[in-house]
C-alpha cells in the first residue's frame, strides 16, 4: 500500500527543484524536456527552483499518475466528499447552479504526472510565466497574465517512456479541477469532457523534428480529457471546435504547447540524443572565431560572443562585437560609416545596400536546433544566429500571439520575425590571411 503525503511534502517538489540533483542521482529514465520559447538557455534572473527556462521530465521514484475511476452527479460540488477530501483527485464539471458531474481519479501505477502552470503552489512542477518578446535584460513584468495557474498536465507512461500525453488543466493544491458553469463542456455517452478558459493548444510537426525536413502541422486544442479538437472561433469562445479523429494528445519530438502567454517546445529524450549539446554549439562558435572574421572598415578582428544575452555588458569587448546588416548579411564591427540622418538604417560599406544593423548573438539553447552545423544564418530582426535548417524551420512555424493571430518568432528571444524571409545568410570576411 502506497501512502501519499499531501502536496507540501510531495517528492514531486523535491525532484523538480533541481534537475542537476536529479541528474546526479542518475535516474533510469528520462521522458523528455519542456523548453519555453523566447529564452536563450536560461531565465534572466537565473533559473530558480521550479521557475526556469526548461524542465526535464524524469521518471518519478514512485508512480504519480492518476486515472479516471468513477463519476456521478451531485447538487452541490463544493460540499461533496471527493472535493473536500484533499487526498482524492477529482474533476468537477458544473452543469448548472445545482448540478455538477464529479469524476474521481485514482492513483495510476503505470504513469507519472507532471503539472505546468503559473501557480507557484506545490502541485505545479514547472512554473511558467508570460513571455515578453525581445531583450530580457530589463525589468519588464506582465501585469495581466493570460496563463492559467494550473494550465495543463502531462502523463508519461512508466513502462513505455516514449509515450507522454498532455491534458488541459492541472489539479490544484486540494487535488481538484473545477470547470465552472461558463466553461465549455459536453457529455458523450458516459464520458464528460471540457475546455479551459483560454485553452491549451498543441502543434505537432509533420515528419521528424531532427533533420529539419518536418512540415508545419496545424494548431489543435486539447481538452481536459485529452481529446483533440480544431481551434475555436476565438481563443476563449464558448463553442468547441470539431473533433479531430486522426490526431492524438501523445507528445512527439518537436510538439509545441501553447498556454496563451507562453509557448513550450517538447523534446523527447530520443530526439535530444540527435541534437547538439551546449558544448557542441560553443565549439561551433569557436570554429567561426578561429577564422578571425574581420571588420572591413576598422580592419579589426571580430569575436562572436558565446554568451547568450543581448545586453551591452557582455564579456566580449564592444570593439570586437560583430554586427550584421540585415538586408545583405554582411558582418562588420561597430563603426559610424554609412549612418543616415534620422534613420535606423545604414548603408553597408561593402555592397552599399541600405538596411537595419543589429548585434550578432549566438542562439545557444540546443533544444531549438533541428540539426548540427555552423551557425551561418541569423534571424531578422534580432540577430540570433543558428544553422540554416534551424532558421528555415522556425520561419514556417506560426506561434499563437495573444488571444488571436499567429506570428513566426525567433525561438531564442520570441521576437516576431520581420521582412521576408525573416532571416539572413551571414557573410563573414574571414580566413583572410
Ligand atoms: Zn552588404
Ligand atoms: Zn532572437
Automatic annotation (TrEMBL):
Q: Recall the GO molecular function terms of this protein's record.
A: ubiquitin protein ligase activity
Q: Which domain of life is it from?
A: Eukaryota
Q: Is Phosphoprotein given among the entry's keywords?
A: yes
What InterPro entries does this protein's entry cite?
Answer: Pellino_fam, Pellino_FHA, Pellino_RING, Znf_RING/FYVE/PHD
> Could you provide one GO biological process annotation from this protein's UniProt record?
protein polyubiquitination
Domain Pellino RING: start-end pairs? 288-433
Task: Fetch the Pfam families from UniProt.
Answer: Pellino_FHA, Pellino_RING
UniProt KW keywords: Phosphoprotein
Q: Does the keyword DNA-binding apply?
A: no
| Residue span(s) of domain Pellino FHA | 24-283
Family assignment from sequence similarity: Belongs to the pellino family.
Protein name in UniProt: Protein pellino
Amino acid at each position: 500500500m502506497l501512502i501519499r503525503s499531501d502536496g507540501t511534502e510531495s517528492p514531486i517538489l523535491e525532484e523538480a527543484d533541481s534537475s542537476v540533483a536529479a541528474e546526479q542521482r542518475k535516474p533510469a529514465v528520462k521522458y523528455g524536456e519542456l523548453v519555453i520559447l523566447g529564452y536563450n538557455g536560461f531565465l534572466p534572473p537565473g533559473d530558480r527552483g521550479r521557475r526556469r527556462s526548461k524542465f526535464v521530465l524524469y521518471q518519478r521514484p514512485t508512480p504519480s499518475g492518476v486515472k479516471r475511476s468513477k463519476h456521478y452527479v451531485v447538487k452541490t460540488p463544493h460540499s461533496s466528499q471527493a472535493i473536500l477530501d484533499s487526498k482524492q483527485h477529482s474533476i468537477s464539471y458544473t452543469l448548472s447552479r445545482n448540478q455538477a458531474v464529479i469524476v474521481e481519479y485514482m492513483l495510476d501505477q503505470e504513469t507519472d504526472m507532471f503539472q505546468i502552470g503559473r501557480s507557484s503552489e506545490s502541485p505545479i512542477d514547472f512554473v511558467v510565466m508570460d513571455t515578453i518578446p525581445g531583450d530580457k535584460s530589463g525589468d519588464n513584468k506582465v501585469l495581466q497574465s493570460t496563463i492559467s495557474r494550473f494550465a495543463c498536465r502531462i502523463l508519461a507512461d512508466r513502462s513505455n517512456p516514449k509515450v507522454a500525453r498532455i491534458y488541459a488543466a492541472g489539479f490544484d493544491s486540494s487535488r481538484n479541477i473545477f470547470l465552472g458553469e461558463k466553461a465549455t463542456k459536453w457529455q458523450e455517452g458516459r464520458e464528460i469532457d471540457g475546455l479551459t478558459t483560454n485553452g491549451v493548444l498543441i502543434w505537432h510537426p509533420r515528419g521528424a523534428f531532427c533533420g529539419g525536413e518536418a512540415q508545419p502541422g496545424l494548431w489543435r486544442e486539447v481538452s481536459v480529457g485529452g481529446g483533440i479538437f480544431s481551434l475555436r472561433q476565438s481563443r476563449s469562445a464558448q463553442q468547441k471546435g470539431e473533433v479531430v479523429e486522426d490526431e492524438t494528445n501523445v507528445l512527439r519530438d518537436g510538439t509545441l504547447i501553447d498556454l496563451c502567454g507562453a509557448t513550450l517546445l517538447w523534446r523527447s529524450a530520443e530526439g535530444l540524443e540527435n541534437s547538439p549539446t551546449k558544448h557542441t554549439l560553443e565549439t561551433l562558435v569557436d570554429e567561426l572565431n578561429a577564422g578571425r572574421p574581420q571588420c572591413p572598415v576598422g580592419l579589426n578582428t571580430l569575436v562572436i560572443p558565446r554568451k547568450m544575452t543581448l545586453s551591452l555588458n557582455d564579456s566580449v569587448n564592444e570593439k570586437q562585437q560583430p554586427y550584421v546588416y540585415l538586408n545583405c548579411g554582411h558582418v562588420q564591427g561597430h563603426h559610424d560609416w554609412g549612418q543616415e540622418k534620422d534613420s535606423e538604417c545604414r548603408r553597408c560599406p561593402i555592397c552599399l545596400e541600405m538596411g537595419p544593423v543589429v548585434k550578432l548573438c549566438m542562439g545557444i539553447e540546443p533544444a531549438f536546433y533541428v540539426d548540427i552545423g555552423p551557425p551561418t544564418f541569423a534571424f531578422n530582426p534580432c540577430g540570433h544566429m543558428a544553422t540554416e535548417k534551424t532558421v528555415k524551420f522556425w520561419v514556417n512555424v506560426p506561434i499563437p500571439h495573444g488571444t488571436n493571430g499567429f506570428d513566426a518568432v525567433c525561438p531564442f528571444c520570441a521576437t516576431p520575425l520581420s521582412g521576408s524571409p525573416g532571416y539572413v545568410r551571414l557573410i563573414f570576411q574571414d580566413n583572410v590571411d
